[in-house]
# Entry
Amino acid sequence: HGVSRDEMFEARRLLEVGVAGLSAERATGDQLVAIADEVTSMFASIDDPQAFLVHDIRFHRAVASASGNPILAAVVEMVSAIFYETRRQNVHRATDLREAAEMHRSIYHAVRAHDAAAARQTMNQHLMQSERAQVMEEAVIDK
# Structure
């Protein structure tokens, strides 16, 4: 897609941090169940990086849907599709899936608690952690 890792994470932080806050303010019971189901599926697929990635993408889409803004949800859908295409090629090198699952669970807890500030902060931490992990994976590949 001609998008650099830095550009991808910059867009994700600007978009998904705000979306997480809106989700904490607006999520319905059914939407919380959908988010929780993806967290559970992430933990269940820690030993299968490709399956984990699918649930990771679905988690972010579920959070976006819970924002109650269909435009934001559509933009997250587009960005997550690009992220999936670039990430699926190297996800088998991931070494931090349990830590990533824990971060997703923390985001879910903040959304479930309707704590918009915590949801934004935790999503930002997760995206920064995810970017650092990818930088480390790429450094290993380059060696």
About this structure: The chain is about 80% helix and 0% strand.
